[in-house]
Q: What sequence folds into this?
């Protein structure tokens, strides 16, 4: 259940950089993640899910491209697995009911229906108690390869009809295993303009400073 | 919530859920009603013939004739979640071939607001009382019951048997005179 | 690159969300769509198992049961084999050679001691019994013809289904729009 590491995001990014480079030569160095040369993210500013996704993606970019941490996909992959199995059960039920019409297919249907709803319950528990809004797990590899990895987790929330974006970064150092976290709550209007264009360059420092503070505190 | 369409959509969805909720509450208020009522049924003289049933097999089957009296007051069954009552008078009996025979010989729809006090004297049956075979002659245990199917505005469709029934018998000889 | 240009040219801005997704997210979008379909499917199959009927919810299509049921009313059915069929009950049955099941009331029942039962139906609003509707030569219905018996009733709700079936293009357009929305819209 491990998909090959994704490259498409990086790919489009380089392409855009290239286009930008032709149109307006700019002194920006290659992809460094501290500033964005991508086609700016523009969303419907009234859509809170879109707002949250844009901000989450921004924070992700800071951590992965700015700080060059390695993303760990396990958390999301497990969710994908649960969903896949659930959908698998339902399609199997559909197929079985087609091959052996109803009264005969009853035992299999019972099994599939029960499994499906149990998996949905598991999924709910998983997203509320295990994922808890975490949208990125990143590993900070020890360069010497001696110590276990530091595990960074980013979680966020944005209530519907509310403009306050809550972002939490927490770190579990491989050496001490003592979790420390810092968070900020900011109005989304700080990072989006009237038209819903995401201003990455204003958002990036917030995340960078948060991350840097945490890094320092755990180095001490 | 910034466009006309999204507001319309929200209002529509909210209206629908409120209506669904209210409908369910309406169903709950009457869900535990028993819908019972006493019924008096009586019959006049019954006769039985043995004639071919051209609507079915064309074989000779028993055909019963009976006139009935019936009194019942069903007005207390009606409430705000009863759209109509479907009344039916059932003749139930046992024959050699069949342990259970049920034949509806009369029915009536009473909508809410219509007269729900029944008073019938020497009334003829609405449907032919055909047996499946020849089990009516000499049958001395035919039970008449009035039942009703309550049709709500929304909810369950209970089938209630009226309190009180009437037993009668068919003669041991076929009647030959034309009725 | 061509993709990028295309979007600029035709203003497919609503696809930007999709373009920003990685493979996992794309797969999740498809899964999300699959789960919406699956939930509906599983609720339906679950109802089938609970009620024992192959179609636990039906929409009344004709006026033959008026004034009890009108076109567009919704009926909940059960079909427990151990429950006997009795007169006065409203059954939904299939007739050979007819695609659409019929919902009518039982008028006569003749049951043998081995449990084999023959019954005759009639629509409340029809003046004659259903023998004319049955397959040629068929005089009685049997238990195997029954799809379910009406247990619950909700008015009007089914009119949506009727409208959709009357205008199939409209139905497919709506379904396609909803499907597309779910696919390209991040939760």
A:
């Amino acid at each position: 259940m491990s998909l090959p590491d994704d490259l498409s995001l990086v790919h489009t990014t380089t392409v855009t950089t290239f286009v930008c480079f032709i149109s307006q030569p700019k002194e920006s160095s290659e992809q460094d993640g501290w500033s964005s040369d991508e086609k700016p993210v523009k969303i419907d500013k009234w859509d809170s899910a879109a707002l949250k996704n844009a901000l989450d993606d921004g924070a992700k970019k800071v951590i992965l491209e700015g700080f060059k941490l390695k993303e760990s996909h396990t958390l999301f992959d497990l969710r994908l697995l649960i969903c896949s199995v659930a959908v698998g059960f339902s399609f199997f039920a559909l197929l079985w009911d087609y091959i052996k019409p109803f009264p005969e297919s009853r035992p299999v249907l019972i099994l599939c229906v029960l499994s499906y709803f149990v998996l949905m319950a598991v999924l709910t528990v998983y997203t509320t108690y295990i994922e808890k809004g975490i949208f990125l797990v990143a590993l900070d590899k020890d360069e010497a390869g001696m110590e276990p990895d530091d595990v960074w987790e980013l979680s966020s929330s944005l209530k519907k009809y509310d403009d306050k974006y809550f972002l939490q970064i927490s770190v579990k150092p491989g050496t001490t295993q003592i979790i420390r976290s810092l968070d900020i709550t900011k109005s989304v209007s700080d990072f989006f303009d009237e038209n819903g264009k995401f201003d990455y360059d204003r958002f990036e420092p917030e995340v960078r400073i948060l991350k840097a503070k945490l890094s320092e505190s755990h180095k001490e | 919530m910034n466009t006309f369409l999204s507001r319309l959509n929200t209002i529509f969805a909210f209206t629908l859920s409120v209506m669904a909720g209210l409908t369910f509450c309406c169903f709950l208020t009457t869900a535990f009603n028993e819908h019972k009522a006493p019924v008096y049924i009586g019959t006049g003289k019954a006769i039985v013939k043995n004639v071919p049933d051209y609507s079915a097999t064309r074989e000779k089957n028993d055909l019963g004739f009976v006139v009935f009296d019936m009194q019942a007051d069903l007005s207390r069954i009606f409430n705000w979640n009863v759209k109509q009552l479907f009344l039916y008078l059932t003749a139930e009996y046992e024959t050699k071939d069949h342990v259970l025979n049920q034949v509806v010989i009369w029915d009536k729809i009473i909508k809410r607001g219509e007269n729900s006090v029944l008073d019938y004297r020497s009334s003829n049956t609405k449907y032919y009382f055909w047996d499946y075979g020849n089990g009516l002659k000499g049958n001395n245990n035919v039970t008449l019951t009035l039942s009703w199917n309550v049709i709500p505005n929304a909810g369950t469709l209970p089938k209630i048997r009226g309190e009180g029934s009437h037993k009668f018998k068919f003669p041991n000889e076929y009647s030959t005179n034309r009725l | 690159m061509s993709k990028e240009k295309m979007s600029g040219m035709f203003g497919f801005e609503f696809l930007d969300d999709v373009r920003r997704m990685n493979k996992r997210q794309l797969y999740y979008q498809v899964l999300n769509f699959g789960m919406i379909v699956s939930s509906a499917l599983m609720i339906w199959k679950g109802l089938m198992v609970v009620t024992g009927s192959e179609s636990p919810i039906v929409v009344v299509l004709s006026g033959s049961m008026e004034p009890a049921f009108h076109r567009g009313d919704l009926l909940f059915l059960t079909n427990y084999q151990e429950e006997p069929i009795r007169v006065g009950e409203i059954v939904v049955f299939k007739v050979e050679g007819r695609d659409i099941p019929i919902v009518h009331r039982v008028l006569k029942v003749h049951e043998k001691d081995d449990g084999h039962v023959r019954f005759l139906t009639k629509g409340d609003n029809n003046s004659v019994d259903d023998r004319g509707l049955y397959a040629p030569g068929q005089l009685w219905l049997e238990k195997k013809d029954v799809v379910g018996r009406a247990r619950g009733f909700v008015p009007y709700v089914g009119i949506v289904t009727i409208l959709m079936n009357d205008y199939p293009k409209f139905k497919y357009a709506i379904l396609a729009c909803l499907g597309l929305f779910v696919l390209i819209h991040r939760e």
User: Anything to note?
Assistant: Chain A has two domains: 44-69+140-218, 75-132.
